[in-house]
Amino acid sequence: MVAHFDAPDPDYPLPPFNEIPDDDADKPKEAYKLTATLNGFPAIIFGTATFSRIYNEADHISGVTPLRAARLALRYGLNVFDTSPFYGDSEIILGNALRALRDEFPRDSYTLVTKVGRYPAGFDYTPEAIESSIARSLRRLHTNYLDVVYLHDVEFVADEKLPRREGNHVAALGQEKEQYGLNENQEGEIYTDKDHKILSAVKKLFELRDDRGVIKRVGISGFPLPTLLRLAILIQRRLGKPVDLVMSYCHLTLQNSTLEQFKSAFGPRAGVKQVITASPIAMALLRPSPVQVHPAPLEIREAAKRAVQLSEEWDASGTGLPDLALQYTFARAREIGVPVAVGLSTLEEVHTSLKAWHEVDAEGLATKEEWVTRVQSVQNLFRDVQRLDYSWATP
Which of 81, 106, 202, 279 is paired with 290 by a 20 to 30 Å CA distance? Predict the structure, then answer.
């Protein structure tokens, strides 16, 4: 067992509640409030990997900004929070914030999403580890139930069954179905013992959902869409019931929007009720200052740099490309009925995300010629190097 679930958690004490600022910046703009839902999910999901030292400094996550950002999101109607034990102390910080906000936002006013199986020390998909992980998440999040639990990053444990680890995988839905294990006569076929580990872990999550009620919905998450589809089909065939949700990331972006082709297969072929996308900025690829180590190949990273330079012609502040990326994902997600998990750190980022959704949903931004031209000009940069709709290899 790689995770030590009984180790003491670090403490992140909050100041007295009446000392936490509640200023104009903490108030939502009425026009931007979320109303529509997709199977109980708002259009935007609050990703809290940002509540960790993976993305922010210790001073940020140990202060009151995470609480204020969560409170503002809830005031907007953005009431689903996605976390994971893999994200450092994210569960602890989120749980402390929500406990402090319980008078304004009781437990039944928001949805908690966490994950099992991947931890800072590595992967552990054993049923015993999953049970211990759930118990720890319940404790950290100060709750007696979890609305959604994903088996985290399944491609690292399962047999990927990919004829190539990078490239455009849409052919998995057509002429290359057999190579990806997605032919109709291959449904339910187990390739190695790795697939048994997935089935055993999901079976445990189903038990915690169906027999003990500590989980409301079960899902799988990861990067390669063909692998997620194959595993979702395998689970339904071998365990006799489907997972409720599937989440992939970086597959509904300016650089890669192949989730649009795959999304329609998850329901009919695997019984999945909801598909969710994450990381509209493509793991910070589409920011002026991307992360130093990114799994995308050099051609994609260089094209992204050119996209940043191009966007500076529209907006010298440096927010032009990230704003366009967020708007694009929201526009496509709205079209195909997919909620978007967005990593948020600050009040400003919450306001900006809700503004972007409003521009797409209420103002018809995606129909405006100037916006469409900008989208096409960025996508052409990736197309020119034959890397549009190209999935990089899982690290």
Answer: 81
Which residues does 98 contact at the CB level (< 8 Å), separation at least 6? Answer: 70, 81, 105, 107, 110, 141, 142
Q: Which of 53, 248, 214, 193 is nearest to 133 (CA)?
A: 214
Per-residue pLDDT of the chain (395 residues), as tens digits, is 565 788 889 989 999 999 999 999 999 999 999 987 777 799 999 999 999 988 888 888 899 999 999 999 999 999 999 999 999 999 999 999 999 999 999 999 999 999 999 999 999 999 999 999 999 999 999 999 999 999 999 999 999 899 999 999 999 999 999 999 999 999 888 888 999 999 999 999 999 999 999 999 999 999 999 999 999 999 999 999 999 999 999 999 999 999 999 999 999 999 999 999 999 999 999 999 877 789 999 999 999 999 999 999 887 776 799 999 999 999 999 999 999 999 999 999 999 999 999 999 999 999 999 999 999 999 999 999 999 999 999 87
- Amino acid at position 84, single letter: S
Cα separation, 124 vs 363, whole angstroms: 46
Hey, is 2 helix, strand or coil? Answer: coil
78, two tokens: 């953005």
44/187 Cα distance (integer angstroms): 33
CA-wise closest residue to 222 among 297, 293, 159, 138: 159
Q: Please report, as a single letter, which amino acid is at residue 238.
A: R
- The single residue of 32, 55, 76, 87 carrying the catalytic annotation is 87
Burial of 96 (0-12, 13-18, 19+ CB in 10 A): buried
Alpha helices in 18-170 (DSSP H): 58-61, 65-76, 90-100, 127-140
Structure tokens at 182: 């997605």
Active site annotation includes 12: no
Please report the DSSP string for 207-264 in residue order.
Answer: HHHHTS-SEEEEEEEES-HHHHHHHHHHHHHHHSS--SEEEEESSSSSS--THHHHHH
**Whole-prediction pTM:** 0.96
Closest CA to 68 of 28, 22, 24: 22
**Residue 94 identity:** L
Q: Which amino acid is at 196?
A: H
Residues pairing with 87 in the sheet: none
What does the DSSP 8-state code read for residue 28? P
